[in-house]
Amino acid sequence: MRNLKVLMAYKGTAYHGFQRQDNAITVQEVVEKCVSKVLNHNVVINGCSRTDTGVHANNYCFSVLTDSIIPPRNFIRGVNGHLPADISILECDEAAPEFHARFSCIGKEYEYRIHNSESKNPFETDLSYHYRRPFDADLVRYAAKKFIGTHNFASFCSNYNEKQDTVRTIYDFSVEINGDSVKMLVKGNGFLYNMIRIMVGTLLAVNEGNIKADDLESIMKAKNRQLAGRTAAAHGLYLNRIFY
Amino acid sequence: MRNLKVLMAYKGTAYHGFQRQDNAITVQEVVEKCVSKVLNHNVVINGCSRTDTGVHANNYCFSVLTDSIIPPRNFIRGVNGHLPADISILECDEAAPEFHARFSCIGKEYEYRIHNSESKNPFETDLSYHYRRPFDADLVRYAAKKFIGTHNFASFCSNYNEKQDTVRTIYDFSVEINGDSVKMLVKGNGFLYNMIRIMVGTLLAVNEGNIKADDLESIMKAKNRQLAGRTAAAHGLYLNRIFY
Question: What is the value of pTM for the model shown?
């Protein structure tokens, strides 16, 4: 049995996230249909992560078991030939039998894109968050650094319950500005439900003067979602890299 | 009477070009409707250029006459409040009475975007031309230089007739590569119908070995559309800058 490790990119706008659901179209369902056609048998793919409705992926990894002898190059071409315009297979490699896209993952990087301008960008509808207010990059960078390290992120989680382990480690949180485009890159060992979007919404609250950067540590300690900022819009978020 | 000079960006996918037509939706029609609402009188806007169906604009200039005393900043906000997601007003300034977006123009720059990869880019559907073959940047750059200068571009025009003045001056033709993204920038004093797209299609034919770079001068001299390459797809083309 071969274990194929596959990398793909998708625009999430049309999908109710990655994971298969009844009564809603998901990336998993569409990809499984196309992969099944190419491999000539029904497959279940193992995705590296759930993603929310409207969230995108620059690099999303899934693994799939098959007895097919199709070469990886032909797999890429074949599946891409069936996929719609908003999903694209980028790479395919043979993986060790024990590799699993989700359980083997040791870290992830997310990107959050903001178009910071009075006028919207007509080429980035659904692809970046349009934010009109002045953006204080130095202040936001200073605040973002507070998240780096190992903390309890219960205040930055949408469905927190006390039984859940909400300790995570953030390795890096950078804020890059290029003209009116702002890109935040967050690298960590794992993320809670809506954690990146709540961290971004909190940084925007800091930018707007509604939360103080120096209060972020006490907000983390309080384990209270109410103290953090809003959940930033899904359509600015991209799963950017998966580390194994 | 004030003469407003307005800069906008649009994604051309949903429109039959800029210029108003019967029985087809155009950028001009949509913008005129929104501007008329904000200025409180019916307007005809003077665009800097026609663009083809599916062609985009990073910067498109139009001028409009009005007796309204609306401040430029409010004009921008007001019109943007009415426009659909794929058109955005970027700037508005008072212009001299004799300014006309089309007749005052002394030059234009177009951009042509190519996604050069085996796999398509799911975020650039309709926004770049997907080109799978290996791209020889040095060869294409060498060939592109042949277009620079004052030449008769009749071979690079879709609707050539002998009465038309087909002499144009190209100031610059650059080819930038960034990962799998190729960007061509063409600056000139004016362009014939489909001229950029035929020049790009011809450069791709050079890349593919079907036209020799050193034959481009004789192809220009021949004034024969059949000798040039194909017309590259509209959706990779952007009106990038207008010079006054």
Answer: 0.93
